[in-house]
Specification:
The chain is an alpha+beta fold. About 30% of the residues lie in helices and about 35% in strands. Strands 1-3-4-2 form a four-stranded mixed β-sheet. The radius of gyration is 18 Å and the shape is elongated.
Length: about 120
Protein backbone atom coordinates (compact mmCIF):
# COMPACT_ATOMS: atom_id res chain seq x y z
CA UNK A 1 0.00 0.00 0.00
CA UNK A 2 2.85 2.43 0.78
CA UNK A 3 4.40 1.81 -2.64
CA UNK A 4 1.11 2.62 -4.39
CA UNK A 5 0.73 5.83 -2.41
CA UNK A 6 4.31 6.86 -3.27
CA UNK A 7 3.75 6.13 -6.95
CA UNK A 8 0.52 8.13 -6.90
CA UNK A 9 2.26 11.06 -5.19
CA UNK A 10 5.06 10.94 -7.75
CA UNK A 11 2.59 10.85 -10.64
CA UNK A 12 0.65 13.82 -9.26
CA UNK A 13 3.87 15.77 -8.72
CA UNK A 14 5.09 15.12 -12.25
CA UNK A 15 1.72 16.06 -13.70
CA UNK A 16 1.66 19.36 -11.80
CA UNK A 17 5.19 20.15 -13.00
CA UNK A 18 4.13 19.44 -16.56
CA UNK A 19 1.46 22.15 -16.31
CA UNK A 20 3.86 25.03 -15.74
CA UNK A 21 6.06 26.83 -18.24
CA UNK A 22 9.84 26.63 -18.33
CA UNK A 23 11.07 29.43 -16.03
CA UNK A 24 12.99 32.42 -17.36
CA UNK A 25 16.50 32.49 -15.90
CA UNK A 26 17.67 35.83 -14.42
CA UNK A 27 20.37 36.41 -17.06
CA UNK A 28 17.77 35.94 -19.83
CA UNK A 29 15.50 38.76 -18.63
CA UNK A 30 17.32 41.22 -20.89
CA UNK A 31 17.07 39.21 -24.10
CA UNK A 32 14.82 40.91 -26.63
CA UNK A 33 12.96 38.64 -29.07
CA UNK A 34 11.53 40.22 -32.20
CA UNK A 35 10.83 39.35 -35.85
CA UNK A 36 12.84 42.44 -36.88
CA UNK A 37 16.37 42.00 -38.26
CA UNK A 38 19.17 43.26 -36.01
CA UNK A 39 21.29 46.33 -36.57
CA UNK A 40 24.44 45.96 -38.65
CA UNK A 41 26.32 46.74 -35.43
CA UNK A 42 25.20 43.40 -33.95
CA UNK A 43 27.09 40.18 -34.47
CA UNK A 44 25.67 36.72 -34.94
CA UNK A 45 26.27 34.15 -32.19
CA UNK A 46 24.22 31.19 -33.37
CA UNK A 47 20.80 29.72 -33.79
CA UNK A 48 18.68 28.97 -30.72
CA UNK A 49 15.72 26.67 -30.34
CA UNK A 50 13.15 26.91 -27.58
CA UNK A 51 10.69 24.13 -26.90
CA UNK A 52 7.92 23.36 -24.42
CA UNK A 53 5.72 20.29 -24.32
CA UNK A 54 5.54 16.85 -25.89
CA UNK A 55 2.88 14.25 -26.68
CA UNK A 56 2.61 13.26 -23.00
CA UNK A 57 2.91 16.50 -20.98
CA UNK A 58 1.57 18.90 -23.62
CA UNK A 59 -2.02 17.90 -23.01
CA UNK A 60 -1.67 18.85 -19.35
CA UNK A 61 -0.13 22.25 -20.11
CA UNK A 62 -2.19 25.29 -21.10
CA UNK A 63 -1.51 26.92 -24.46
CA UNK A 64 -0.25 30.14 -22.81
CA UNK A 65 2.18 28.09 -20.68
CA UNK A 66 3.37 26.21 -23.78
CA UNK A 67 4.01 29.53 -25.52
CA UNK A 68 5.70 31.18 -22.54
CA UNK A 69 7.81 28.09 -21.85
CA UNK A 70 9.09 27.85 -25.43
CA UNK A 71 9.94 31.56 -25.45
CA UNK A 72 11.65 31.33 -22.05
CA UNK A 73 13.62 28.29 -23.20
CA UNK A 74 14.83 30.18 -26.29
CA UNK A 75 15.76 33.27 -24.25
CA UNK A 76 17.63 31.13 -21.70
CA UNK A 77 19.67 29.49 -24.46
CA UNK A 78 20.37 32.83 -26.13
CA UNK A 79 21.59 34.31 -22.84
CA UNK A 80 23.96 31.36 -22.37
CA UNK A 81 25.51 32.28 -25.74
CA UNK A 82 25.92 35.87 -24.53
CA UNK A 83 23.13 37.22 -26.75
CA UNK A 84 20.81 40.07 -25.91
CA UNK A 85 18.80 40.06 -29.18
CA UNK A 86 17.01 37.23 -30.96
CA UNK A 87 15.40 37.53 -34.36
CA UNK A 88 12.67 34.90 -34.27
CA UNK A 89 12.54 32.89 -37.48
CA UNK A 90 9.75 30.38 -36.87
CA UNK A 91 7.27 29.35 -34.23
CA UNK A 92 5.55 26.03 -34.75
CA UNK A 93 2.78 24.39 -32.79
CA UNK A 94 2.40 20.64 -32.61
CA UNK A 95 -0.93 18.88 -32.31
CA UNK A 96 -1.66 15.35 -31.22
CA UNK A 97 -4.82 13.47 -32.11
CA UNK A 98 -6.90 11.98 -29.35
CA UNK A 99 -9.06 8.84 -29.36
CA UNK A 100 -12.21 10.85 -30.07
CA UNK A 101 -10.72 12.30 -33.28
CA UNK A 102 -10.13 15.76 -31.79
CA UNK A 103 -6.74 17.43 -31.87
CA UNK A 104 -5.01 19.16 -29.02
CA UNK A 105 -1.99 21.47 -29.02
CA UNK A 106 0.82 19.63 -27.26
CA UNK A 107 4.02 21.53 -27.97
CA UNK A 108 5.55 24.72 -29.32
CA UNK A 109 8.98 25.14 -30.86
CA UNK A 110 10.52 28.57 -31.48
CA UNK A 111 13.65 29.02 -33.60
CA UNK A 112 15.64 32.23 -33.80
CA UNK A 113 19.03 33.73 -34.58
CA UNK A 114 20.88 35.05 -31.54
CA UNK A 115 22.95 38.24 -31.69
CA UNK A 116 25.08 40.33 -29.38
CA UNK A 117 24.16 43.97 -29.91
CA UNK A 118 25.32 47.18 -28.28
CA UNK A 119 23.01 47.60 -25.30
CA UNK A 120 21.91 51.10 -26.35
CA UNK A 121 20.54 49.66 -29.63
CA UNK A 122 18.47 46.99 -27.89
CA UNK A 123 17.10 48.94 -24.97
CA UNK A 124 16.35 52.50 -26.05
Amino acid sequence: MNIDLRNLSLAIGLTLCACSSIPLEPQAQHVLVTPNPPSKKCYYLGQVLGNQGNFFTGGWTSNPNLEAGAMNDMKNKAAKLGANYVQIITSRQGNTGQNNGAYQQTNITDIGNAYKCPTKLVFK
